[in-house]
Amino acid sequence: MGGKLRMYNVEFGDAFLLYGQGENLLVDLGSIQNGFPFSRVLDSIKDESREKELSLLLTHFHEDHWSGLHNQTPGHQLPGLKMVYLPDIFRMRVLGEVDVIVQSLLSDFLEAVVLNKRLRFTLADLLREILPGLQWKQIRFLRRGDKFLMGGRNYEVLWPRLNREDVVMKRKRPLLDLLNRLDVKTQANGREIGLLDTLEAIASVLLRDFGRGVDYPVLDIVPDYDRTYGSLYNQAQELLEAITFEVRRDEGELRNKIRHYAKQLGNSWNQISLVFHDLAEEDDVWEYPDLPAESLGRDGVLMTGDAPSPILDKLRNGTFAGPRLRESYAVIKAPHHGTKSYFCAILPHCRYLCVSNGEGNKNYQKISEYYEYEYRFLSGKTEIFCTNPRCDFIKKRRLCPYFSTRPVSQFYDVSW
Known about the structure:
alpha/beta
């Protein structure tokens, strides 16, 4: 049984449409480019799903994977959704620990400090403003080993595992020292509530409110706070103003540390990004010279979200008990938009590799050559679909082999 996938060009971001029988699945919808015009993308998704149902899957909660939900203008909106699939954020919450939810809030807070801007929690935007506005019939939270049916095809979740070690950050002394320094500065201004205590309360209240909205039992996961998100946000904003005032007088070491941890903590969502594949027909094979035909599936798509390469390495090598990556796929979505730091040399063989790098990826220069070396695109073994024609191929040869016959497009269709 073949399949079809459409990769939309949303600059540096992800928007993929998986086609099915009577139902399509939209995998992420976001861009790093502020104000990206999503109208054409939304219209295309609506047109492609005109006679089908549409479901949505968000691999994780970085804004370049969901900002398109926020940028729906009148007349250019998604149709009502049959299903919404999310990583199981409730099981990511570990009370009293710096879990990935608290890390995300802390990243937003530190970024606001170094940029001297008003505080904005992107996770709160998603949970409180965007998702409740969608007309879903059902929402499902996914973790490793779960399966779901979409358009007549079964899909299996390979990641996140959601063990404590996967969602709780090791208590790094330099970071804790930095947070203690910030708390000392706020206490000097008469504020007794610490930054981490405030963010932990916000994390719990966000999940409490969201859980009530989707009828999810949260009592065992989230304490029964009597605080509101609004009051806690105001508390965090006051802390931000006090810390920003102190940091403004120190343009050196402290500001650099805050900037470093804002970026590092911002990557925490990538650690729990959904990775999933479809369960292909075992007897469908396609010819590949270097591997036995019986090990290669002609069907099958692997969606990697923004999962880092160490996780994909373990899924390929069978480090974890349970499902693992197959030896090959028809289509693979390159992890994390094909950035150099997330390059993965152990991805299974595939016929098509989709790289949603876009013009916003300033570090794209060598990624085509890396993947070319591993997957031999130019020899015809694998074909690449990418959304960014600026790379070392152009720099050295003044011609990108993937754009010589294929201009930069609004979307790319891949069928198998």
